[in-house]
Amino acid sequence: xxxxxxxxxxxxxxxxxxxxxxxxxxxxxxxxxxxxxxxxxxxxxxxxxxxxxxxxxxxxxxxxxxxxxxxxxxxxxxxxxxxxxxxxxxxxxxxxxxxxxxxxxxxxxxxxxxxxxxxxxxxxxxxxxxxxxxxxxxxxxxxxxxxxxxxxxxxxxxxxxxxxxxxxxxxxxxxxxxxxxxxxxxxxxxxxxxxxxxxxxxxxxxxxxxxxxxxxxxxxxxxxxxxxxxxxxxxxxxxxxxxxxxxx
Length: 248
Description:
By secondary structure, this protein is an alpha+beta fold. 47% of the residues lie in helices and 12% in strands. Helix 2 packs across helix 6. The longest helix has 24 residues, at 99-122. The radius of gyration is 20 Å and the shape is globular.
């Protein structure tokens, strides 16, 4: 288990082999055993296999090829819609139209997605997370017909791998783990923590291709810019308002 988790990679190219329905159902049942807040299971899972729906989802993920090419696309959603309806039908008054409730449901959706991912990879399948889900949540809501109190959080593509990518780098453990209390980083700490990442040929190539001085500038000026972060923040906050988690 340790080796499979440490060696996992994101797979973006898949064979045409279909995932057996029995296996897909087993993965979903396994995922739904994940820990969650108060055993409320405030998440929903939308499984997309129809090619026309994948075509509609593709622009929501900036037309990344594997959305259309993967045999299965799975969207994990924060969902208080179902729980609210159960409360109302049982003479209970739900009080979950707030940001804290959304945060709980978002965490639950993320945990169940990772549970699904680990189970799928243990069966020889490849997966890839798409961070674009929250960028264009408003568009995904339309495509998947998500009602109020349902917000897409995480998307996974899944299929039998048609590639074997090499594992990507990770920061050293001493740069991430803090014992007892948080120990802030000195300039020397930062240099040491990021030294290996900055030394990799592929990262040096990113710097050259983007005409930047440092790898950090590739992140701040090209990949995850302030303007883009602010734009998508506004869009996502509007989604939370329209879906009932923040006041209009």
